[in-house]
Amino acid sequence: MDSFHHILAQGRTVLSEHESKQFLASYGIPATTEVVISEPSQLISACKEIGYPVVLKGCSSQLSHKTERGAVKVDIRSDDEALRAFTEIKRSMDLQEGGVLVQELVKGKRELMAGLTRDPQFGPCVMFGLGGIFTEILKDVAFRVAPLEPRDAMDMLTQIRGRRILEAARGMEAVDLEAMASILIAVGQIGLENPRIQEIDINPLIIRHGKPVAVDALVVLN
């Protein structure tokens, strides 16, 4: 991915959310449909291109804790709401460089996470667990050292205590385990092929119609 090598050449240590998802998508990891804009004049056409309802987020490699800073607005359903949200997000970003991400609203009741951490002894280690608010509360995570074979990835899916979340329940279809395993395998491959990557955090992966979709992501370089 040419833009990734350009980022490396810049000496940056963090990719923006949009850059992170573009990079992950180049490895076949499914992510939200989205576009980054910089001017309010681009907003309405971007919202119509994505299709209401949309999510608006501040998008910058310098912007952390987007939700706490008021830089995330969800379930935007009209041009007026979008303009108000855009103004509030730009204000919350102060003078930081970056644009506003216009993203499809992915609806799903189950949130998972996948990621990578580079251990000094073992190298790239793949993570899988419960996502969203449950990541920090329950700390229900499984680890495997890369590379992962399909069997390894499938084993990881059964290792978490909350593994029944992957099953069909209450009108929700079962999670596509092969699709989820493919994401874990791809994360491990990324870690092996890109030694400059220190950490990957894909959280949440929302389950939509049984398929995982990366709704937020962060790639950190060493």
List keywords for this structure.
globular, 7 helices, alpha+beta, Dna Ligase, domain 1, 2 domains, single chain, 222 residues, four-stranded antiparallel sheet, D-amino Acid Aminotransferase, Chain A, domain 1
Overall description:
A hairpin with a 2-residue loop joins strand 8 (197-208) and strand 9. The radius of gyration is 18 Å and the shape is globular. Helix 6 packs across helix 7 (177-193). Helices cover 32% and strands 29% of the residues. It is an alpha+beta fold and 222 residues long. It has two domains: 2-30 and 108-221, ATP-grasp fold, B domain (D-amino Acid Aminotransferase, Chain A, domain 1), CATH 3.30.470.20; 34-104, 2-Layer Sandwich (Dna Ligase, domain 1), CATH 3.30.1490.20. Strands 5, 6, 7, 8, 9 and 10 form a six-stranded antiparallel β-sheet that branches. The protein has a four-stranded antiparallel β-sheet with strand order 1-4-2-3. It contains seven helices and ten strands.
Mean pLDDT: 94
Q: How many strands appear in the DSSP assignment? A: 10
Work out the helix count: 7
Q: What would the CATH topology of the largest domain be?
A: D-amino Acid Aminotransferase, Chain A, domain 1
How many angstroms does the end-to-end distance come to? 18 Å
CATH architecture of the largest domain: 2-Layer Sandwich
> Which stretches are poorly predicted, pLDDT < 50 over at least 5 residues?
none
Order of helices and strands: HHEHEEHEEEHEHHEEE
Q: At the fourth CATH level, what is the homologous superfamily of the largest domain?
A: ATP-grasp fold, B domain
Supply Rg. Answer: 18 Å
Q: Helical residue percent?
A: 25-40%
Which oligomeric state applies? Answer: single chain
Strand content: 25-35%
CATH class of the largest domain: Alpha Beta
Which overall shape is indicated by the principal axes computed on the Cα atoms? Answer: globular
Largest sheet: 6 strands, antiparallel
